[in-house]
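Open question from group meeting: does this chain pack into something compact, or does most of it stay loose? Before anyone orders reagents, we agreed to write out a predicted structure and look at it together. Recording both the input and the output here so the notebook holds the full record.
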Amino acid sequence: MRDKYATGAFTDADKPSSADAPVVYLTIERNPAVLSGVVTSRQTRRALAGIPVKLTCNDVVYTATTGADGRYSLTVYKLDNAYTLSVSAGATCLLRSKM
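Structure tokens returned:
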């Protein structure tokens, strides 16, 4: 059926019925918040680059990776959730904090 759509050679029988049509729910947040910070070594206090940072609440996940200066920034659109911030290096969790 994909080829029929590509060439425009489809009939009304090829079209999905209204019962088969997908339903899309969309929410647009107008005023996102930015969560930012710096990840440093506890021992040396030097910035840590390439560290994954994750902010989660159930199925809502925001991710970032620290830059060369250890900084990260996450734009958060769902402001009414209670999040957990996780910072990890490999399999080691460096920080887990509820927000």
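Observations to bring back to the group:
The CA atoms of residues 6 and 44 lie 59 Å apart.
The beta strands are 33-38, 52-57, 60-65, 71-76, 84-89, 92-98.
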